[in-house]
Model the fold of this input.
Amino acid sequence: MSRQRTVLNRIPLKRILVLVVLNAALYAGFVLLDILGALDVPIPDPSPSNVMKYAAIVSCLLITLFSASKNKRVPPVTQGAQGSTQGDAQNKTSSCVMLRAARIQTVVFAITLVADFFLLFTDHFVVGLLVFLLAHLTALFRYKPRWVPLFAAAAGALCVAALIVGRSYHSEFQLMRFVLLCAAYAIVILGVLISVFKTSQPRGNTLLSRAGMILFLCCDINVFFSNFLSRGAAYYEPALVLMWVFYLPAQTMLALSAVSFRGVPAVSSAEGGTRGGRRRE
Done:
């Protein structure tokens, strides 16, 4: 029975690895196309780059779906007669935490697909930005649920202010509306970034979450430049390329951060990886 459960546990992991390899191939393809486009090298019109980017985010969604399936099958790890009850309880708790993380991350990517559709295939940038704002609030619920009302209220207040200001058609007010929306987005994503560094997770998942959010922030910095710089600016074209150079690795890491690679209890940064003289791997 234990052998059967181990085999079942490996099946979703193999699918996840296939999706990671697929993302790497899509990444290489669209980065090459974006660089050629920035250099004015003739490429097919319309470029398949955006379709490849969207397919990669669909792949990230599938990773989280398989993660939830895998986390359900993580078998409890017994420690023999002595301390087995405590060990099983800790592993069960860890498995439940990672299963919850995978389910929330799945919702995050479902919302992200809607946002990326508006950003990649339409001219409705503001709509995509607002949908992304919802995705980040959902991600915040994974790490620090108690923070969600505070950040939602702050972002909501800025969005309402942007709505009021945006009723005027003067260019100055339109710019102010855009700045207010960007401020709302920045507040929420910084909240997610901080929460990732303050949340207890297994060590590998913690590293993936933190690295993913740092890369996500690098992506958004380039999104900012690509929207505020004029087309003739020196950094405009590089910003267009670099946003996705950072974005897909960030999303792939965040998707993988919800995978329960081993059934070990979570380790908080305050514990420093030790308790009772015993190091947790």
About this structure: Residues 2-266 form one domain. Confidence is low (pLDDT under 50) at residues 1-8, 76-83, 263-281. The first strand starts at residue 274 and ends at 275. The beta strands are 274-275, 278-279.
